[in-house]
Amino acid sequence: MSDETLPTFAALNVGDRVASREVTLTRDSLVRYAGASGDFNPIHYNDTFAESVGLPGVIAHGMLTMGLGASVVEEWAGAGNVVDYQARFTRPIPVPALGEANVAIEAVVGALDHDLKRARIDVSVTFDGAKVLGKAQAIVDCA
Amino acid sequence: MPVNVETQGRTYGPFEAYEVTRIKIREFADAVDARSGAHFYPEIAAAEGYRDVVAPTTFAALIAQQAEFHVVTDPEVGVDFSKVVHADERFTHHRPLVAGDVVTTTVTIESITQRAGISMVTTRAEIVDEDGAPVSTVLSTLAVREGDQ
Question: Given an 8 Å threshold on Cβ–Cβ distance, is B56 in contact with A74?
Fold first, then answer.
């Protein structure tokens, strides 16, 4: 953790929106994440394969979506200051071969532990009017 | 063949050490749109109190997944990878990963639960540094469909 960049705990209130970002995903984004992460499951770049396993087409890596959410929190909290982060993958984000998928990310203070000076930041990632992650929560240790 | 619940508790590794590099952190940070300067520039990381550039929050997934690969390819566990979807993931960071870290990972099949033709396989990857001190714990759950569902 870095004391230099930590948010001031006393200034936080439950319900505060601390950060938000809109992200445009293209096939390029998925190929880039595949290379960076080493996750080369073809459902993330091959439409024929994706359809053969019952998907509507190529979908974004759940871990890419989760990582995008983390980046919004971490830019606000300071690099290295998220001590715990979890999410469930509840809906896929189809990404067309041509064109793009636009997602909206918001980070809101969900709970404050005043004894430990830890903030729970609830992350929502919305695509096509629906949230794609469940119980996406990041813990920022402000002590 | 359904997933074999008898393999619950099985542990794999530790595997070959993973060396965290500046270039991989930068590549990963670009891929997840991480924007803090401390992911990219050693001098910014140093000003924030770090030994070197800092890995983004979910970077540990790529280290954990290399270990989890041994679980999903173990024929005795019986995961059909064409019938897998990622259900959930959780990172607990005991300290941030930084460039220069050399870490090793041990992965355990934490639980296997089955209902309605779906097996939920949860793995726990423990990532430790060269001194054996804990760095990150990564919990990951795969949902595996059975049969033709």
Answer: yes
- Domain regions of chain B by residue span: 5-145
Percent of chain A at pLDDT > 90 equals: 91
What are the boundaries of each domain within chain A? 16-141
CATH 3.30.70.940 is held by the domain B5-145:
no
Chain A environment of B31 (Cβ under 8 Å): 29, 32-33, 35-37, 64, 67
Q: What is the pLDDT of residue B16?
A: 93
CB distance A64–B93 less than 8 Å? no
Q: Measured between alpha carbons, how far is residue A101 from residues A16, A41, A52, A93, B86 in Å? A: 27, 19, 22, 8, 20
> CATH for A16-141, among 3.40.50.300, 1.10.1060.10, 3.10.129.10, 3.10.20.600?
3.10.129.10
A67 and B39: CB-CB below 8 Å? no
**How far apart are the C-alpha atoms of B112 and B117, rounded to whole Å?**
13
pLDDT tens digits along B37-83: 999 999 999 999 999 999 999 999 999 999 999 999 999 999 987 78
CB-based contacts of A54: which residues, under 8 Å, 6+ apart? none
The shortest C-alpha distance from B18 to chain A (Å) reads: 13
Task: Determine the residue among A46, A48, A71, A90 to mutate to test chain B binding: the one whose Cβ has the most chain B Cβ atoms within 10 Å.
Answer: A71
> What's chain A's average pLDDT?
96
